[in-house]
Fold:
Amino acid sequence: MNNVHTHIAERSQLNRQLNILLLSWEYPPNVVGGLSRHVYGLSAQLAEMGHHVHVITAGNGSLPAFETIKGVNVHRVIPLNQSDPHFLTWIAGLNLAMSFKVKTLSSKVKFDIVHAHDWLVGSAAITIKELLSIPLLTTIHATEHGRNNGIHNQMQQFIHEKEMQIIHQSDQIIVCSEYMREEIMSLFHSDIKKVAVIPNGILQSEQTHNNEEIFPFIQNRKFIFSLGRIVKEKGFETIIEAAALAKQMGKDIYFVVAGKGPMLEKYRKLVTDLNLDHYVTFIGYVNDEERSALLDKSELAVFPSLYEPFGIVALEALLRAKPTIVSNTGGLKGLVKHLQSGLLMIPGDPKSLLENIELLLQNPEKAFEMGKKGQQIVKSLYGWKRIASQTVQVIEDTLLLEKTKTN
Structure:
């Protein structure tokens, strides 16, 4: 009984304002992928809860070296070799700059924990853990093995080993789905006790936008919307193949795909080569307002990923009550219940995608019901307040465990 009372007393002591150090290579307005928005949403909510949050991220010279955003202290560092064209060397320079920054900062702030996001900041995170003698919590957003369906070259092997290093050096791991937990345990033989599942969150806004002013080229056209980083694992080739099939079948279906990434020009060329410009448009990068406008105006949203640990963009569609089709894979399949809050398609199968599209277009009342059901689920499960509270719980448990080790 004394042990129980001691544990409760220790937890009550931890129920205080924490000094949390977050490491992320990207942070708004520097947005490369979903990781940036995740760290932004989490850090802002942690600050709103009363915790002292410091984010260390990459600067580019045009953004302030320090500013406070929504109560979060954002420190931007310039990689030691910022002009190096080789990404891995650039990342190494970023990690060194992060470590130097935290060493200086730690003379003013006594941090309780360092929370790293993905392997990209792993070297700095491990150095800081040792330097400050504090626990390391790491969120793994995706794996190199998963993105590429295996490890096929030296660069992928290097990244895989960096992931293994930070996972084994971390005191606690957070992943966004049960699918990711199984992947981490299978690939890296990690202890199940140190892998917690906390979903990604989403900022809840129902503001509507008039996208005809923003994108006049889609005025009076019905379209299906998709969004994501333009890379192979997001499955946009399936959309192109579905468009070709729709054309062959004489169906008037138009896809609008937003996002930037290394495959953008290749996909644009493929669309033109296949004479599908009337069926598919890759519009490139869109800002938050444009993304919301396109979602509002679209008939439905499609996320045909081949590999997807979670699927934050699908959450954005669901939040706006948009009928949504997602691949039956990874974290996506946990976001919707087939025929209730959305539809599941076979990954990489254009015929399956078209069949699901037809089902929604031919049953507008059912599609509307699915959209509203999806919205209700997102609002109840994926708000940042809930997710930040779960993250604090993991932090407190990690600190308690660390305390018992040292006693």
The domain at 211-381 is CATH 3.40.50.2000 (Rossmann fold). The longest helix spans residues 384-406.
